[in-house]
Amino acid sequence: MKFFDEAIIYIKAGKGGNGCISFHHAKFIPKGGPDGGNGGKGGDIYFISDNNINNLNNFHRKNNYISQDGFKGQNYQCTGKNGKNLFIRVPIGTNIIDIKKNIIIISLKKNKQVFLAAKGGNGGLGNINFKSSINRTPYKRTEGVLGEKKKIKLEFIIKADVSVLGLPNSGKSTFIEKISSAKTKTGDYFFTTTKPILGIIKNKLNNSFISILDVPSIINKSSLGKGLGLSFIKHFKYCNLLLHFIDVSLINIKNNLSLSNIINIINYEIKKYDKKILLKEQWLILNKIDLLYNKDDLIYYSKKILKEYKFISKFYFISSKKNIGIKKLSLDLLKYLNK
């Protein structure tokens, strides 16, 4: 199933019901008097955040949302029923964006947070409202007011403590599956991860949790639309730490890639999307060391990398598949995020 984290929808609140023209008839009052009631209010449209939803897929099946109109007024001064309000459920972390102004109206950050997005129109007035000393039989009413209508963009941002990034087949998904309850599809082919995967690490000492996010891999020229593009990088905005995964078996083997080459490919693409993300701290995760016979040269170059790239503060040698270095990295993550 595809994963959608953006959607454009049209919302239209209900129109108010029309006022009523009516006259009551009573014995000994041949002309009677006005008794037309007011129309009911049109239904409002609300967004409500729901922690049971984790994507915007439903909004690609349906993109028009209309609440109920108010009912017209009745005789005997009866007001028409109000139209039913419409509640649109979205994931926690959804930004409601006004497309015309290109601004975020509100970010729904808590479960069951409610936001009034479009107001229903008021009901029209019945002829009872127009009776006066000089007009005792008014044939006048007003129509209900139209409800608000808007074009809205929904943007779902996954908020995680840690995000992982890397070229395809760098072992990101295997790592997250190893350390958390996340179940990801892994294998030796490009774009194993085709949608964001959120894993949770639990610290048994204090029962605290950290969340770690895997997104589709970045490749050279992702910013030009190659591969799966860069739209998933938006989910890095709120994380505290980036783990940059590198498959060490690629270094100086395929396409003459050096450690610096690989780092530059990833960070160049991120910079094209949002250079502010590169201000976040990065740890370099050198994965699949079980495939190396000698890592002394790699240690030497990794130390040089720390001096060359100021945003990289640490490096780790691990093997997700062979469970090498996983425990230390997990403990360091917990210490770093709980300090």
Question: Can you tag this structure with a few keywords?
Answer:
single chain, 339 residues, alpha/beta, Spo0b-associated Gtp-binding Protein, Chain: A, Rossmann fold, rod-shaped
Ordered list of secondary-structure elements with their pairings:
Layout: E1 6-12, E2 23-26, E3 29-34, E4 45-49, E5 64-66, E6 86-90, E7 94-98, E8 103-108, E9 114-118, E10 149-156, E11 162-166, H1 172-179, E12 197-203, E13 208-214, E14 241-247, H2 259-273, E15 281-287, H3 296-308, E16 312-317, H4 326-338
Parallel strand pairs: 1-5, 4-6, 11-13, 11-14, 14-15, 15-16
Antiparallel strand pairs: 1-10, 2-3, 4-9, 7-8, 7-10, 12-13
Q: What can you see in these coordinates?
A:
The protein has 339 residues and is of the alpha/beta class. The protein has four helices and 16 strands. The protein has helices spanning 172-179, 259-273, 296-308, 326-338, and strands at 6-12, 23-26, 29-34, 45-49, 64-66, 86-90, 94-98, 103-108, 114-118, 149-156, 162-166, 197-203, 208-214, 241-247, 281-287, 312-317. Strands 12-13-11-14-15-16 form a six-stranded mixed β-sheet, sandwiched between helices. A five-stranded mixed β-sheet has the order 5-1-10-7-8, with no helix packed on it. The longest helix is centred in the C-terminal third of the chain and has 15 residues, at 259-273.
